[in-house]
Amino acid sequence: MRALSSPLRLRVLRLCQEPRTNKELAELLGTNPGTMLHHVRTLVRTGFLEQEAERAGTQGAREVPYRATGLSWNTPMPRESRVLFEVFTQQVADLRPDDLLNTTWLGLRLNREHREELQQRLHDLAEEFKQRGPDPDGEPYSLFTAFHPDRTSPSGQI
Fold first, then answer.
1. Is 153 helix (H, G, I), strand (E, B) or coil?
2. How far are the Cα atoms of 28, 92, 99 from residue 96, in angstroms, in the given order?
3. Lowest CB count within 10 Å: 3, 77, 106, 140, which one?
4. Hey, CA dihedral for 61, 134, 33, 92, is it positive or negative?
5. Residue 127 reports pLDDT greater than 60
6. In whole angstroms, what is the distance from residue 150 CA to residue 109 CA?
7. Residues 65, 67, 68, CA angle at the centre, nearest 5°?
8. 91, containing H or E segment
9. What is the C-alpha to C-alpha distance for residues 93 and 7, in angstroms, rounded to an integer?
10. 109-131: buried (b, 16+ CB within 10 Å) or exposed (e) per residue?
11. What is the DSSP letter of 76?
12. Which of 64-68, 77-81, 149-153 has the highest mean pLDDT?
């Protein structure tokens, strides 16, 4: 759990859906390469990243790319953790309003059976698209969902 407690590490995992070097990650996330190496090593040690075969960089230097293993997909986050919200807000902070292609905020009144059904269907749909793998001609997108009790509508009127 500690390995996933850092918003920076979660962003690294997102970026490593394709192989990335420590230097590339540091540049993309605007951080010091030494700091990035610490985070990368933590993710490798805990099985969230794996090292790929070394390669020669643009100027012939040795580079070590890393790729996400997918382990984080089924790793439950502690209920009290707000790290996913922090990552989300960091990722959308610099977006223009038109870049948020579809936002939905929906209030529902559901019994336990229907709540569980909705949660399962959302999970299954996300899992289906994850299993498809990347489209060769695709562009990168991000999806964030949060299913939570609505404390602002205790009467259930939405």
1. coil
2. 19, 8, 5
3. 106
4. positive
5. yes
6. 9
7. 155
8. helix 83-92
9. 14
10. eeeeeeeeeeeeeeeeeeeeeee
11. P
12. 64-68
**In contact, 122 and 145? CB cutoff 8 Å:** yes
CA–CA distances in Å: residue 21 to residues 68, 114, 136: 12, 44, 21
Tens-place pLDDT, residues 67-76: 999 888 767 7
Beta strands in the chain (DSSP E): 20-21, 49-51, 55-56, 62-63, 65-68
Query: 58 is written with which tokens?
Result: 């643009």
Please state, in angstroms and rounded to a whole number, the distance separating the CA atoms of residues 23 and 113.
Answer: 48
Structure tokens at 17: 């859906």
Percentage of residues in the chain with pLDDT exceeding 90? 42
Taking CA 72 as the corner, what is the angle to CA 3 and CA 19, rounded to the nearest 5 degrees? 90
State the pLDDT at residue 98.
Answer: 86
pTM (two decimals): 0.68
CA-CA distance, 129 to 98, in Å (whole number)?
A: 24
Domain annotation for the chain: domains and CATH numbers: 2-132 (1.10.10.10)
Cβ distance 130 to 68 under 8 Å?
A: no
Specify the pLDDT at position 1.
Answer: 67
